[in-house]
Amino acid sequence: MGLVVQKYGGSSVADAERIKRVAQRIVATKKAGNDVVVIVSAMGDTTDDLIGLATQVSPLPPGRELDMLLTSGERISMALLAMAIGNLGIEALSFTGSQAGVITDSVHGKARIIDVTPGRIRQAIEAGKIAIVAGFQGVSQDSKDITTLGRGGSDTTAVALAAAMEAEVCEIYTDVDGVYTADPRIVSSARRISRITYEEMLEMAACGAKVLHLRSVEYARRYGVPVHVRSSFTDREGTWVTFEPERDDMEQPIISGVAHDRSEAKITVVGVPDKPGEAAAIFRTVADDEINIDMIVQNVSQAATGRTDISFTLPKTDGQQAMAALNAARDQVGFEALQYDDKIGKVSLIGAGMRSHPGVSARFFSALADAGVNVQIISTSEIRISVVCGEDDVPAAVSAVHSAFELDAEDEFAQVYGGTGR
After folding, report:
1. What kind and span of H or E run contains 296?
2. Taking phi first (over 0 means left), then psi (-120 to 50 degrees means alpha), and beta for anything else, what does residue 33 get?
3. Pairwise CA distance, residues 287 & 325, whole Å
């Protein structure tokens, strides 16, 4: 037996009864002979509720103060969980992200982990106690301010601590039984994947699969941390995320799953001068505001005007900030206008097997056509095809593509035990 790091999502600790049930699972892991470090999210939809409260007080809350507010959610759940574990006869100590040694850069709202120095966590473990750590948060190396890691950041906290402490496994407990071939909230016949590679999971997470935070998968791959995604509501085996794909008598499946994302917006820069350096100026303006861009498409230049249009997608939460930055640089870049659309969705097909199988693209786009889905932007990688469509078309697109690649389970239906998918 060795060190086990466990992370529990918001739906797993949404109320007092669920917190007590999670405490029993943690104590059982400890009594089985393991050292246990637990990372916990805020209860239920607490983070969403706090964001809503902040926007009622201020239309544009300062990043520093918003981080101070949002990190209170995890501090509530970590203290309550430590109390529940104590009632079961084992001492637990709760730690904030800064107390746990999670050191980050100074970017509020989406800080990146620079280092993890878990000295106090090691001391607690060596004393035979269970360490409970608030996820999603750290402390800036430079300013010493509290920072947050972005939505889903508790997964990254868990994997980072598992890597720093050389844990045997990082268990991510959520409200479904593992990683599925599609979101069970949209496709009830989605099939659970027993094993998936870091590479495929990276694409799934980047394309909107909320079961794991993208940066947590990047961290796990970099340090070789085995990740086990499973439900906190059952004892079923979940999904293992490792270097090795699922092995059986057949070759690896062509497709791992279908992911979707409705949290993005699209900006079109209209009438960009078609000459070297113009696209660089546009994307440098966005990058200077610490905004990540996802998909990009440039239209064919109009010979008569010597101008073209450039469209790109980005997180919806960064949309207005990007529009303001681009408008400020309009004279410098020389474009004619900006268009903004936040009623879009991204649908992606992921699978390492598509590298060596022709006809995947044809089947993918045929399924979308048969479902009456109009495609606005297309992006591909070696193991992924992504399209942007209207937000309302996402459920039909996901279901059509999932069925077209015969991913539906034959003998069971996926069950969502909690959470809203927000």
Report:
1. strand 296-298
2. left
3. 10
The residue count for the chain:
422
Amino acid identity, position 54: A
Q: Given CA atoms 266, 214, 245, 184 in this order, what sign does their dihedral have?
A: negative
37 close to 101: Cβ distance less than 8 angstroms: no
Q: Is 241 helix (H, G, I), strand (E, B) or coil?
A: strand
Q: How far apart are CA 273 and CA 264, in angstroms?
A: 26
Beta strands in 352-399 (DSSP E): 377-381, 384-390
Q: How far is CA 188 from CA 192, 387, 395, 398, 407, in A?
A: 11, 22, 12, 12, 11
* pLDDT string in tens for the chain (422-residue length): 699 999 999 989 999 999 999 999 999 999 999 999 999 999 999 999 999 999 999 988 999 999 999 999 999 999 999 999 999 999 999 999 999 999 999 999 989 999 999 999 999 999 999 999 999 999 999 999 999 998 889 999 999 999 999 999 999 998 889 999 999 889 989 999 999 999 999 999 999 888 898 999 999 999 999 999 999 888 889 999 998 765 554 445 688 999 999 999 999 999 999 889 999 999 999 999 889 999 999 988 777 788 999 999 999 989 999 999 999 999 888 999 999 999 999 999 999 888 778 889 999 999 999 999 999 999 998 899 999 999 999 999 999 999 999 998 877 666 676 654 43
H-run or E-run covering 39:
strand 35-40
Spell out where 162-253 has E strands: 169-174, 179-180, 192-193, 195-197, 227-231, 239-242
End-to-end CA distance of the chain: 36
Cα 283 versus chain centre, distance: 23
Amino acid at 63: G
Q: 């230049």: which residue's tokens?
A: 301
CA distances from 87 to 19, 158, 227, 329, 411 (A): 12, 24, 29, 59, 41
| Number of Cβ within a 10 Å radius of residue 374 | 11
